[in-house]
Hints:
Blueprint: H1 15-24, H2 29-45, H3 48-63, H4 68-77, H5 109-122, E1 127-131, H6 134-137, E2 144-145, H7 146-149, H8 173-179, E3 183-187, H9 193-201
Parallel strand pairs: 1-2, 1-3
Helix pairs in contact: 1-8, 2-5, 3-5
Amino acid sequence: LPLPNPDAPPPDRPDAVQAHIAEWVPADPQRLDQEAALLAATVGSLNEEQAAIFWGIVAHLRANVADQDVWDDRWAALRLPNPPQPGDMQLPTFQHGVAFLSAAGGCGKTYLLNAALKTARLMQVVTVATAFTGLAANGYQGGTTVHRSFQLPVQTEGDDRGALQSTLHRGSAKADVIAHSGLIICDEAPMGGCRIANAMKE
């Protein structure tokens, strides 16, 4: 990959966001090549239905970056698989940037989402991987529970059923990462219900 241009203006991202990106992008070029090669192999192993969802996510991510030429140059430099041409594959679209993935256990949902997560990270997109149980969160590299990521209270039987209030402070490092996220994965989302979904949105 080309070295950064020292004369280029610094990206408009807080330090916490830059640190988050650096955490998931190997600084060593050889390791970066290895990670990209592993990802390419994973993408090649997706079945037709998984591939359509994966490329739909990639297309959505690319459509929402500040500079698509920079995205394309980095994609080529990493030697990632070429996206399908229009008409080759029916890609899903995401209303309001939200997608709900539903399938029986063992169908490869986590495998697919990990491929999308790895792609976003190698492409320097800020990501958050969450789940409603610690067991499910362990299925993602860097995954945490929804309650930890969004600092939501754990509700017990008999608690007030009003709106949930996050203890996340605007301008904090964690809040900056979430605010700049291009991809947020929330595994087992139906377990949370509307109150948690609304708290996450807020």
